[in-house]
Amino acid sequence: MSEKKSFGIKAAMVIALTTGASTLITADGHDMRDAYKRPAEIPFPDENPYVEDKADLGKQLFFDPRLSRENNLTCGSCHNPSFAWEDAQATSVGTPMSRLGRHTPTVLNLAWGEIYFWDGRAETLEEQALGPIQAGGEMAQDMDQLIDELKAVPGYVERFEDVFPGEGVTPENIGKAIATYERTIVSAQAPFDEWVNGDEDAISDAAKRGFELFNTKAKCVACHEGWNFTDWGFHDIGLGDNDEGRFEVLEIDALKHSFKTPGLRNIVERAPYMHDGSLKTLEEVVDHYNDGFTDRPSLSTEMVKLGLNADEKSDLVAFMKTLSSDDPAVSLPKLPN
Amino acid sequence: MNTKHTICAGLLALTSSIAVSGATFAADPVRVTQQGKQFSEKNLNLVAGQEIIFINDDKVAHNVYTIVKGKKRDLGLQKSGEEDSITFDAAGTYRVRCAIHPKMKMVVKVK
Predict the structure, then answer these.
(1) Do residue A234 and residue B63 have CB atoms under 8 angstroms apart?
(2) Rounded (10°) CA dihedral A143, A149, A155, A161
(3) Does B74 touch chain A (CB under 8 A)?
(4) Structural domains of chain B, with CATH
(5) Are A232 and A259 in contact (CB under 8 A)?
(6) What single-letter DSSP state applies at residue A86?
(7) A295 CB near a chain B CB, below 8 Å?
(8) Least CA distance to B59: which residue of chain A?
(9) A27 pLDDT exceeds 90?
(10) Measured between CA atoms, how close is A93 to chain B, in angstroms?
């Protein structure tokens, strides 16, 4: 009996050393990677189901500058597919060429979202889609004027009537069409996914060590969980700025200076980082979490000094680089005129 | 005679059991755990005056809140292992959420 047990342990050690996977087993016996498997389908809400023509209309609206007051900005001006649906700036430029207060978040994988914007002020993606169009510093468009403008374009009138029979061009339908298109924007399979699916050669040993750290010592998983690496929650990560974030929407003390956890898919292409775009590289991000944050009463209880050494920090960055997918290029739609 | 006594005793026991359990049910608090960033219940039906005890069995902190008569009822930051409660005094439908993790939500209907 003893011999058998001993043999079992030795055999397990040999297998572990061979595969390099021993440390990926959690205390309750699960492979850490199981929690990161990609979903098979995009979820669409019952109130706004997927229809191909509706998504196509949403794409036209997303890339149409006539949705802005000065007819010079599209949703894609800030949510640029060339930069993983961000804009490679600390904070964007809106109307009239004014610098905004927060970094542009990506549009990737919003179909799985809960509430929207950095501060969660929109309950649905349909509501979110209409926000920047009308926001004074962003696209600054008057909604009544926009409806008139779109109704003056026969191609749009026809398209809206096809997709929303008997309803046509309305603010609600603009929101539904854009939200439907946005839900189709999903990051493709990355090397990390191939590794999760069993291809041991898909990522480097450094990245594998980084993944283990991500789930253990570095505590990233406390918020960056699941296949899209977010709990869609709100946390003060101690950036030290004065923006009160979610607290401005919901006055609960624990929410002071808290912002929504961003997903980490295609994170390399989405620099700079954080809600204020204040960190330029992933190395700076890891340094911040290691010991660079500001302690204050609202600081998330998950934020503790990590004590990571240089090799561990490098491994974490190597892991995050495996989350980039080679997404297909996005073509601009033809717009009715 | 013996049989009659037995039936009477049985009926008495059954009646008192119903009375006790009925009275107790109305007043008993309901325990809801928070684990894996989920509430253990998605929907609850309560009677007015009943209480929910929220227990944080999770690895991370939570912050339960709801809106009662237009006012926020905020349990504040609840660390792992802590518990706190909300009493629902008035009939109505209440949406309970974790302020930190908005995917944690439940609906409480009070009669």
Answers:
(1) no
(2) 40
(3) yes
(4) 29-110 (2.60.40.420)
(5) no
(6) B
(7) no
(8) A222
(9) no
(10) 30
The overall average pLDDT reported for chain A is 93
Query: What is the DSSP secondary-structure string of A271-309?
Result: -SBSTT--B-SHHHHHHIIIIIPPP-TTS-TT-------
Nearest to B99 among A114, A250, A300 (CB): A250
- Is the Cβ of A244 closer than 8 Å to some Cβ of chain B? no
Q: Residue type for B61, please?
A: A
Same fold, A15-41+189-321 and A52-183: yes
Is A245 within 8 Å of A257 (Cβ atoms)?
A: yes
Across all residues in chain B, what is the average pLDDT? 82
Please state, in angstroms and rounded to a whole number, the distance separating the CA atoms of residues B100 and A260. Answer: 9
Q: Looking at residues A135-150, what average pLDDT do you find?
A: 97
Closest CA to B62 of B86, B74, B84, B80: B80
Q: Does B49 touch chain A (CB under 8 A)?
A: no
Strands of chain A (E only): list them. Answer: 234-235, 259-260
Contact residues, chain A, for B84 at CB < 8 Å: none
Which class would CATH give A52-183?
mainly alpha
Q: Which residues are CB-neighbours of B82 under 8 A, at least 6 positions away?
A: B55, B56
**Among A3, A41, A47, A138, which one carries the catalytic annotation?**
A138
Token duo for residue A230 = 């977010």
The pLDDT tens digits for A256-266 are: 999 999 999 99
Query: In chain B, which residue's Cα lies nearest the Cα of A230?
Result: B101
What is the SS3 assignment for B110? strand
> What was the pLDDT predicted at A29?
82
Min CA distance, B102 vs chain A (Å)? 6
Beta carbons of A107 and A269 less than 8 angstroms apart:
no
Structure tokens at A61: 């609206």
A138 is catalytic: yes
In A, which residues are within 8 Å of B77 by CB distance? 253-254, 301
Question: So where are chain A's domains?
Answer: 15-41+189-321, 52-183
Q: Which residue has the tokens 């058998």?
A: A4
> Which residues lie closer than 8 Å to A12 by C-beta, 6 or more apart?
A22
Residue A308 near residue A220 (C-beta atoms within 8 A)? no
Distance, in angstroms, between B107 CA and closest chain A CA?
Answer: 16
Identify the architecture of domain A15-41+189-321 in CATH: Orthogonal Bundle (1.10)
Which are the contacts of B102, defined by CB distance < 8 A and separation ≥ 6?
A114, A115, A120, A232, A233, A234
